[in-house]
Amino acid sequence: MAQHNLQDTVALLARTPATLNSLLRDLPESWTHRNEGPDTWSAYEVVGHLISGERSDWMPRVKMILEFGDAKAFEPFDRWGYQREIQGKSLGQLLDEFARVRSDNLTELRDLNLRTEDLKRRGQHPALGPVTLSELLATWPIHDLTHVHQISRLMAHQYRESVGPWSQYLGVLQCAGHSSSA
Amino acid sequence: MAQHNLQDTVALLARTPATLNSLLRDLPESWTHRNEGPDTWSAYEVVGHLISGERSDWMPRVKMILEFGDAKAFEPFDRWGYQREIQGKSLGQLLDEFARVRSDNLTELRDLNLRTEDLKRRGQHPALGPVTLSELLATWPIHDLTHVHQISRLMAHQYRESVGPWSQYLGVLQCAGHSSSA
């Protein structure tokens, strides 16, 4: 298992918009706009959720730790913030927007020139309690991977019947949802 | 849930090489060459496995159904075939090779001009028994998604400790392996 490494974190964060663009752009809506059942998301909604996190979650929390440390708890993340993001937008527009806001955030992150000692600074999560800047930054790309994992699962779900007896060999079809947002 | 639709199947199959290319090319080896523990694969090995399937699994089985129906069982898939594919190759070379063999196979598939009645033709799987051409073709992109799902999980595993208390919120970290090859 790897130690957190900021260069590795940024390398992965920088690739997620292109990964989702390659997978989803111009794909038939039977893959991108269907979900796994009531109270679950489609791939289209997941991209909205990722944009919402870029705006109100990751960099705002980085800046809160640098400014206030653990004296002030983060704003709770708004799981429904994606609904504002997707209103009236096509999937192509959301993919463009995700690429733009992610790129802006990575520029802002690089401009902070974080040093090793900064990564040890502590913040206060409203539910999890004390966390470090290093943990927050490591969580960011793993949150991306949680949603790549979710998108592969929800798309595979659309063919659950179509694959016939092969379903037992396909790991992605054995995967139940694992967390409230993934 | 969607009925199997050959155009939708091909649309997804055509995107997987670019998706993995966007995610993995030039990414640090701490993401691409580590696995989840003994007897598990790295992302690099998964790409080798996908190439191996292109060569010896999907289209050869399609052609067997068209030629022999269920009179002759498929060759069992060689789970270790990937070892020949990766020998001495860089990840970049494997990504190029996967794109090439997938593209060749999709050309060959389109040239078959399969009609609705062809999709009902039956074949014989060595372990699963009777299957249809439609089920075989539907399984192909879901096998891709099983491995996208696996890659997101095995990469996330590398930061299992680094994310600290956030691990409980990250669905991908709750996912156990689901099948022998995924």
DSSP strand content of chain A: under 5%
What's the total helix number of chain A? 8
Q: What is the CA-CA span between the terminal residues of chain A?
A: 23 Å
- How many beta-strand elements of chain A? 2
Multimer state:
homodimer
Rounded to the nearest angstrom, the radius of gyration of chain A is 18 Å
The chain-level mean pLDDT of chain A equals 94
Quick one: biggest sheet of chain A? Answer: 2 strands, antiparallel
* Poorly predicted parts of chain A: none
- SSE string of chain A, helix = H, strand = E? HHHHHHHEEH
Derived structural class of chain A? mainly alpha
Coarse morphology of chain A: elongated
Helix content of chain A: 55-70%
Strand order of the largest sheet of chain A: 1-2
Largest interface, chains and sizes: A-B, 67 and 67 residues
Q: Short summary of the structure?
A:
The first copy, chain A, is mainly alpha-helical and 182 residues long. The first copy, chain A, has helices spanning 6-24, 29-32, 43-56, 58-68, 82-86, 91-111, 116-119, 133-157, and strands spanning 122-125, 129-132.
